[in-house]
Amino acid sequence: IANVVILHKSLADDFEKFCHANDGPLPLLYRSKPGEWKCPSLSSNSDIRTDCLQYRIYEYGACTGTSTSLKDYFDQLKDMVTFYLGCSFSFEKAAHKVGVPLRNVEQKCNVSMYKTDMPCCRVASFCCNLVVTMRPIPEDQLEAVVEATYPLKDSHGAPVHIGNPGLLGIQNLSSPDYGDPVQPHPQDVPVFWACGVTGVEAVSNCKSPLAFTHSPGCMSITALKNEDAPVHNSKEIPMVHCISQNPLHYSIASETAVRKIRELESLIGIDPGDRGMKHLCCQDELLKTCLSLSHARSVLITTGFPTHFNHEPPEENDGPPGAIAMAAMLQSLEKDVVIVTDQRAMGLNKKIIEDGVQQGVLKTPVPLLSYQGDAAESALMFLCENGNLERPRFDQLIAIERAGMAADGNYYNARKVNIKHLVDPIDELFLAAHNIPGVTTTGIGDGGNELGMGKVKEAVRKHIKNGDVIACDVEADFAIVAGVSNWGGYAVACALYILNTCEIHDRYLRKAIGFPRLSKKANWASALPSITKEEKLLKILIQHGVRSGVTASLEMEVDGLPFYNVHSVIIEKLLEQIP
After folding, report:
1. Any idea where the domains of the chain sit in the sequence?
2. Is 205 exposed, middle or buried (0-12, 13-18, 19+ CB in 10 A)?
3. pLDDT tens-digit map of 25-53
4. What percent of the chain has pLDDT over 90?
5. Cβ(482)–Cβ(446) under 8 Å?
6. Of 531, 485, 481, 428, which Cα lies nearest the Cα of 307?
7. 510 Cβ contact partners less than 8 Å away, ≥ 6 residues apart
8. What pLDDT does residue 369 have?
């Protein structure tokens, strides 16, 4: 089955480039010569003037009518070029073959098609927003349908979005722009594929004097059988992970990328001093955090644990290096990043960031903010424009080695010393974020008393020394547990690089429109953590009077190495997972 676009020959080269620039919705099967009505590579007896059940006629961008035949346009068609484009109807048999129910087929209706707010890559006069088809798929068969459709690139390939339609700018699934409404079953999830009707929108917007397209749902049927359709040969297998429940949102990455990130999570889980940290670990917290970050546009990072309460400054050197490593990678991925810390530590952190830029650890300064929580609505006003839940300033909040509030409202270091007088109530931001749709939170910690570790507080109370007192009570959506919190930050930076160099994930991120972003790979690689960068940061911290944390001061060996050397080994092993 093929979608059809027929244009004047003067526009043909630009439209072909438009197809190549947006090959998810517009997989080009064949381009005819001017006046060529047949398409021998797709069908031996084709005649594009009558192949479609119905055509749309466009004049200067407006649809002026429909027709079941184009034979009346004999003279005009001599100077026109036909484009045959892949159609998602072709992959439905592959989905059915693996046992995935298709509700539009069951309900004997056309598939639902929607205009999104995702702009395609413009070429000359061709520009439009992506159009998608939607099929409700049972939640337990999401991975099956993704795996079945992924190789069929000429039929739009894998989905471009799974979950809440609002994330594509679609307001009402019961009112499709084209096709028929399809009724989902309980436990079905909306799954969206790029759609060839995108070409119809592009033709309308280019406002050519005369153009033809198929009417949505009335495509050209070729002689090719579905089983003979070209298959994109790839050893990669796509995997699906839920990254948010409110709004519902899934992401996709290759099996190889997922395996590498799980290895990162295992590496940082080494437990110096055997303090019981292994009991706090939950699989895939690093993966889900980084998938969520990959989709985010704006990220808030907070750090600061005043362990040395009798010293000035009271901060420890675990936290800031990890925060800066994450910020550097997020900046290279062109995301907005801010760091939030205590008001009393603003000057210190400003100097650390300035020195980090000077030393080449950061390319540009990271904006620095503080939060005091002066009023009941302070957190919402800080996180959202004018406190409006529909306009959040940040998509994700990450705390790394940040003092977390215990059940009694105090903040404790590992030795049960109350340090509340040194800590601003940044926890309020994480608590408020739970009520803001689309905002995700992550806590990175190595002792259970850090912000966000409330997700594993029962395990902290049971397995960590003084855990019944020091356990953080504030929960994050994801809790990354590391032997040293900085390692968690380094792992996040490495995992983000792995995801963004994964072709399957990259395609899903850009909704299969535009070109792959792998040309930016060198820039991302330059933002990766390294032993040299860590050494520079630690020297900067020492110069500003920041002391080692409790973990780093322990007299111990790990795998026969003095603990000081373990930092270098961990960084080296993390970087070994980089493709």
Report:
1. 3-214, 242-577
2. middle
3. 999 999 999 999 888 777 767 889 999 89
4. 83
5. yes
6. 485
7. 516, 517
8. 98
